[in-house]
Amino acid sequence: MRGLRWIGALLAVPLMAACTEPWRAPGALMPSASPATSVPVPPTVVPGQAVAVEAVSACSVIGLLVTAERGEAAMGYREMVLTVRNCGSKPYVVKGRPEIVVLDEDGRPLRIDVVPSVHWTAAPGEKVLKPGTSAISVLSWRNTVTDVGGGSDTGESLAVAVSAGRTRQFVSLPSSLDLGNTRRLEAGAWF
């Protein structure tokens, strides 16, 4: 047994010594201490990432563009972000919450109560959007069905005024508003 230990030790020493020099294939380049030049990396697309589609004509008419981003959903509670961007050349004031009409698949208004958000409770105020800046409002709702035989409401698009009494803008949605039959949508103040 003692002889096997000596043989193992004698074999291990040359093997360990061989590992002190880095292995190099014939003709391979050696590492350099000089910095490498940067190589442009193409942009990557993350699977499932929402891509906003902007209607240029809406921006040219009123100087603002409202878009909706794909929302989050968990256990019947849903959220979707509305973004208003000043794409004009002058500052624009948004006040309070967006004024929203939910539209069905044929573009007809649904009877939905749009109420102040209980989840996004920033106090409504004024926000000045300089050209190129934006503000967001979070919409939230529950997909609750309380009347099994009564059907449910599904919004496919929105008509949004950034402040009460302003011009409405058609907003395509990245996914449906599955409102159940509670007929309730919450809107947070612009921030």
UniProtKB/TrEMBL annotation:
Signal peptide span: 1-17
Keyword Signal applies: yes
PROSITE patterns noted in UniProt: PROKAR_LIPOPROTEIN
Keyword terms of this UniProt record: Signal
DUF4232 domain span: 59-190
UniProt keyword annotation of Signal present: yes
Protein name: DUF4232 domain-containing protein
